Amino acid sequence: MDIGFIGLGSMGQAMALNALKAGHTVRVWNRSRDATKQLAEQGATVVDTAAEAFVGEAVFSMLADDAALRAVLIDGGVLQQAQKGVIHVNMATISIALCDELVALHQQHGVAYVAAPVLGRPDVAAAAKLNIVAAGDDEAINRVQPVFDAIGQKTWRVGSKPQHANVFKLAANFMLAAAIETTSEAASLMSGYDIDPHAFLDVITNTLFPGPVYQGYGRMIADHRYEPALFKAKLGLKDVRLALAAAETVNVALPVASVVRDNLIEVLAHGDGDKDFAVLGRVAARRAGRAV
Ligand code: NAP
User: Fold this and answer.
1) 153-184 as b/e, with b when 16 or more CB fall inside 10 Å?
2) What is the C-alpha radius of gyration for the chain, rounded to an integer number of angstroms?
């Protein structure tokens, strides 16, 4: 396919590279040009503006958050200039409110809109093993499926309304946040009794809670290792806030999310926002009187 790719951060960089390796023609744009270097070396065309990426069959975006999408797409007037008929696939984790606003704006400018947030961290993206949660017009998703196949292991179609993909993603990250929090608190409890958290996590991840979340984050928490950040705590806070907002809109309470939000605010207050989400382990340890 002939595609554009906007947003070459930890995730977008790996995804665009895999699309390129699979033989797609990729036009890339990033706010800081440095991030385009490796892709250019691999054969991507670097463009100077986001609008120039909005041509061809489809454009994929992997920007940080609502503010970034608003700055690039809406304030930057990109949609007004977009080639008619191009499909925009937004893979970032954003709010339900912005998703609905984007659906209306894309319709107005003749651009198809697919929401396709992903499950998996940058290492998973690099291995082209992402799980893609997609929603939107079926025909548009069919057309971009070859690129999904190049960057992910499976595409889960969850509805024709784009917002449904975002609700899935927010609910998934809420569960992820809760798992990291409970793992942190349990590890702290172990340390209180002079039990090595590694030994505890070894038992737990081989019995009650197997799987990548408890194993991966559990190891980081037990090691007190919060760098390099595969999923920054500040992005985790963004997602927990988005889940709370989505829930409040439909009068659903998420009390556990409120606790994790407060703990992540404490993470930021201690200057740890750029550390990995696992840094919730440090909050639990600090509260138990152990500085780590
Ligand atoms: P990241 O490394 O922080 O990259 C963010 C990207 O957004 C960069 O390309 C950055 O450009 C761009 N950006 C930020 N603010 C901007 C602005 N105002 N105008 C233009 N560009 C702007 O983030 P990431 O980890 O790749 O995450 C991207 C998305 O994927 C997020 O929505 C995140 O929640 C989601 N996600 C992340 C993970 C994960 O584990 N990391 C997993 C699944 C989903 P610059 O390079 O110029 O700063």
Assistant:
1) eebebbbeebbbbbbbbbebbbebbbbbbbbb
2) 20
Q: Residue 276: CB within 6 Å of ligand 1?
A: no
Residue at token pair 């697919």: 114
CATH number at residue 104: 3.40.50.720
Which one of 10, 90, 121, 241 would you pick to mutate in the ligand 1 pocket, going by the greatest count of ligand atoms within 8 A of its CB? 10
Per-residue pLDDT of the chain (292 residues; tens, 9 = 90+): 999 999 999 999 999 999 999 999 999 999 999 999 999 999 999 999 999 999 999 999 999 999 999 999 999 999 999 988 999 999 999 999 999 999 999 999 999 999 999 999 899 999 999 999 999 999 999 999 999 999 999 999 999 999 999 999 999 999 999 999 999 999 999 999 999 999 999 999 999 999 999 999 999 999 999 999 989 999 999 999 999 999 999 999 999 999 999 999 999 999 999 999 999 999 999 999 997 7
The structural domain count of the chain equals 2
Alpha-carbon distance 41 to 97, whole Å?
38
Ligand 1 close to Cβ of residue 130 (< 6 A): no
Our answer to whether residue 84 is catalytic in this structure is no
Q: Is 176 in the pocket of ligand 1 (CB under 6 A)?
A: no
Tell me if 72 CB under 6 Å of ligand 1. Answer: yes
Regarding whether 176 and 278 lie in a shared domain, the answer is: yes
Check whether residue 75 and residue 212 sit in a common domain: no
Nearest-atom number in ligand 1 for the CA of 50 is: 20
- Say if residue 221 is in the same domain as residue 134: no
H or E stretch at 269: helix 255-269
Q: Which domain holds residue 145?
A: 2-160
Q: Which of 8, 15, 63, 70 has most ligand 1 atoms within 8 Å of CB, for mutation?
A: 63
Residue 292 lies in a domain: no
